[in-house]
Structure formats: structure tokens, C-alpha cells
Design brief:
Elements (H helix, E strand, L loop, with lengths): L2 H28 L3 E2 L2 H9 L3 E6 L4 E6 L4 E5 L6 H7 L3 E4 L3 H43 L14 H15 L1 H6 L7 E5 L6 H12 L3 E5 H5 L5 H15 L3 E6 L17 H16 L6 E7 L17 E4 L5 H10 L12 H6 L6 H17 L7 H13 L11 H21 L4 E6 L10 E5 L8 H22 L9 H16 L23 H24 L1 H14 L1 E3 H11 L1
Parallel strand pairs: 1-4, 2-5, 6-9, 6-10, 7-8, 8-9
Antiparallel strand pairs: 2-3, 3-4, 11-12, 11-13
Helix pairs in contact: 1-4, 5-7, 9-10, 13-14, 15-16, 15-19, 16-17, 16-18, 17-18, 19-20
Bound molecules: adenosine-5'-diphosphate and zinc ion.
Zinc ion (ZN) binds next to helix 15.
Length: about 575
Amino acid sequence: MRLNNKIKITLSVIVIFTLLLTGYIYIKNRKGIEEIPYTLFLTHVEMGLVEEVVLSNNEKIKVRLENGNVFVTDNPRKVNFKEELLLNNIKVIEKDETINQTIPMILTVSIMGFILFHISRNMSKQAAKEMSQMSKIDTENNTKRLKFSDVAGNEEAKEALMDLVDFIKNPDAYIKLGARLPRGVLLYGPPGTGKTLLAKAMAGEAGVPFFPVSGSDFVQVYAGLGASRIRELFKKAKEAGKSVIFIDEIDSLGKKRQGDNPSGSEEGDRTLNALLTEMSGFNENDGIIVVAATNRIDILDEALLRPGRFDRQVEVNLPDVSGRYKILKLHSENKPISKDVDLKKLALDTVYFSGAKLENLMNEAAIYAAKEKSSEITSDHINRAYYTVLVGDEKKDRSAIQVRDKEITAFHEAGHALVTKLVAKDNRVTKVSIIPSTKGMGGFSINLPPDKMYQSKKDILSNIMIALGGRAAEEIIFGKDLVTTGASSDLEKATEMTLSMIALLGMDEETGLVNYNVVGNRNLDNKLLLNRTKETLDNLYLETKKLLMENIKVLKSLAKNLIEKEVLNEEEINYLITSEV
Ligand code: ADP
Ligand code: ZN
């Protein structure tokens, strides 16, 4: 909760509480005490019914009758009032009633004071806690220095960061040549894939201090503290000289700003602005690099991605089978692993596991072994750990995906890749993967068309067929009824391309050269456009299926290799296709 809200709530609680308390005391003082007119009181006096009167400076005086009844009446504030009463044989008690009112007042004030004291203590405690979290940064530097060799797999990300290590070490060499040093690197990808590890290793390799913070630390902070913590952080980093600042979960602090957002994100904005200011504030040759991590690059404020900020973006993906093998090996190094354990096979069985999950798996296995007082970790321990780790998962977690899903994705992606190579020979397919990336859901294939100024009608037709290749392969292998939702964005693209061809680009004989945007009816309410789009798509789909059927052997071998290796590079793809065709 933000401070303003917190204070508002506490204050209203105090106010309500005080009102209730005073009200209660007031009512209690007067409770059951009936008020009578002064004249009636005088009558009571005359009749000798009054036993006792409590005099005070208050506006009312308290009267007790002989029968025990008590009431109040107006204080006449008469000079000889007391004497008069005494002459009437009435007992007079003098009491400074103000005390009675002072007590609740003192009480209220002290309660309020106590509450305020408590809040401020909590606040300073919280602030102190947050500040101490900041100073924890320093101790981080005393822990073991990590190296890139402590990160298994993630080769591309490691390479990108290795360049930066040199920047940090010898900024002058680059500045002499007029190079602009990067200030920020954004690592993005699913949780547990080693982003923090990479940033730490980068600082370790460069031999500079590492200042880790988390974006979420800055959000649940009292007003203004977020911004000042950012400044504090950068100040510390500057004092340390060259260094790596690591901001985990940057999305919680740099979410896209929305115009209609209620004041709720003001504090976040202020923190974000402080970050942006600090980042443009340090000198390029300071040798400070800010590394940020997120698994939601799509929701980041664009301001963060501009040049001079996090202008380098490095994707850190889930490991493929060879990556998983390397990670498993790394995390087995310090453990006595029995000979019956086959890490290669284990790597195959752990599709969609992140590095963190693999580490967790080996750790759980070690715990099982230790519980049994076994001297080694056996495949039995690992098997049990495997299920523990899987069961502990959230349901939607990818690692529980069935083998069947893996097969479907493999054929789907193989379909795209193969159609590409068959209909557009100049396109390069540089990578096919069945490991989901942050961009593509199921799997993805990277398809680079040659550089051309214009696209021909044939190019567009080919691209539509490539988009349909995934669904076509699914249908051929698994049957019409078992096709999946995996093709939804493919179909969107294919429809879009077909409709443009027909409605805008004059590439369809029946609809002619008319640009239907100009006529004002490009959408599919237009029966003619809809019919032509459907016919064209249907024909292209049939053609795509036919093509895949003719090359079913290649399709199967691509898919089989994908299931085994999960990622195929350009060479492997080309090899598989040419050797079978
Ligand atoms: P992220 O920051 O991407 O969420 P972390 O870097 O915090 O992930 O990873 C958590 C743990 O998982 C690491 O401390 C390490 O033990 C293990 N791990 C993750 N990826 C790797 C990897 N590529 N190599 C070795 N260990 C890894
Ligand atoms: Zn697809």
C-alpha cells in the first residue's frame, strides 16, 4: 500500500476512535442523568428534597435527591449560591469538573500520541529495513565471484554480455574510437532462466562490484522513498567506481504508463523518472552498466527501451536439450552422482524445465539421498525428485506439458520450415525450435526473406502457404479432428495477407484493381471480398497439404529431430531437407 493511503486510513481510524471515545465519555458522564429546569430544582430545594449538590464551574450542576435520584440542572453561578444551599441543609460538594473533562482529553491525546508514535516507529523501522536492504548490496560483493563458466547454456546471452565486460574494463579504448558505451542491458525471458546469474557473472568477470535490487522493492515504499532509493543506489555505485547495477523485475517499476491511470502509479512514475534521470546522468566512461531483468518485456514503458537507456536487449530463453544437459552437469559437479544416472536422458525428460528448476531437481534428489543416508545420488532419488518438482508446479506450468504436445509442436514447426524451403528457396530458415520463446507460444521458426524492394504476388502466395504450413502438417499427421489452436496467429496472418492481396493490391482477377479501402468497404462484410478470401485461402491450404504429403518423409525426419534436439539450426535444417528430398 502506498503511504498516502496508509496515512489516510490511519488518520481516519484515529479520528473515528477519538470521536467515539469522547462521545462515550461524554455520554457516560451524563448517562442516566436527567436534566431538569432550574425552577423545578428550586422547588425541590424548597420542598427539602435535595440532599446533595455538586458545585463546579461547569454550566451544569449535579443534584442528588434524598430518594437517591440524581439529575443536573443549570448552574446559576450565583455569588451566594453555596451559602443558600447550606442554609437549606443541603450537602455541598465542590468539585472542579474541568478535571473530568481533562481526563478524557489527556486520554485521547495520549492515545493519539501513542498511535502516531507507533506509526512513525513502524515507518522508520520500514525505512530502516529498506535502507538496510540497500546496504546489503555491499555484502553481496564479498560473496563468491561468479564467472560465465557458472552459467551453463545461454550461449548467445553470454556472448552479448561478454562484450560488455570489455567495455567496463577498458572504457577508454572504446571512447577513443568514438564508440558510445551502452548504459543499460535488458535481459528478458521466463523466470529461472539465469538472468540474475548472468548479471552476477558479468560483474564477476569484469571484477567490479555488483549492486542488485528488485524493481518491486521500489514500489511498496513510502512516498518519495522509491526515487530517493534509486538516487542512493546510483550514488553508491558511483562511489564504488566501475560497477554493475542489477535491477530485477524492472517491469514492476517501469510498467507502461497509462493516460487514464488513476493516481495509483504516481509513485511508480516518480521512481521510474528518477531511474531514467540517473541513467542519463552518469558519464559514459564511468564504467557503470545497468542490467535489468524482466519476463514481461511487452509491458515495459517504451521510455526504458530508448537509446541511452536499456537499448541492448538480450533474450534469455528456456534451455534446449543440450542446454539442460550442461546445466544438469554443472549442478551435479559438487554432488556424488551414482553411475546409474544418465544425465543425457534426464535432459531429454526435462523439456520446458528452466535452469532454476533443474537446479531444484538435483537439489531435491540430494535431499532424498541424504534422508536415506545414501552415499550417492541414484537415479531412483532423481526419479522421485522429478515428480516432487513436477507436482510442486503450478498446473499451467509448461514443464508438465505432455510428450504429445511436444510432438504436435514439432510437426507444426517442421511444417512451417519445410514449406518455407519448398516454396521460397531464397528464404533462410535460421532456427526452428519447439521450446516456447517469449514471443512465440508453442515453438517458433525464424525465417529470413531475402532483401527485396518489392514483394511479388508469388512471394505473398508463398508467405501465405508458409503461414498455413503449421496447421497443414498437424492435419496430415494427426487427422482433421485433432488439429489444435496452435495455428491461431498463423491463420490471422494468412487471412490478413490474403485480404490485402485481394482488396488492396489488385492481385485477384475477380475483384480486379479496385482498392476497397478507397471505396470504403475493405472489411469482410463485403460478400465478394469474403468469398474470394475464403476461396484463395482454401486453395492455398490444399496446395500446402499436397506439398507436405509429397515430402512427408522430410517432414517426419524434421519433426523427429526436433523432438530429440528441440532446436535445429540452419545447417541442420538444410542438411535434413536436402538429404531427404
Ligand atoms: P532468473 O533471474 O532468470 O529468474 P536466476 O538467475 O535467478 O533466474 O536463476 C535461479 C537459479 O537457477 C540460479 O541461481 C542457478 O542455480 C539456476 N540456474 C538458472 N539458469 C542457469 C544456468 N543457465 N546455468 C546454471 N544454473 C542456472
Ligand atoms: Zn505456426
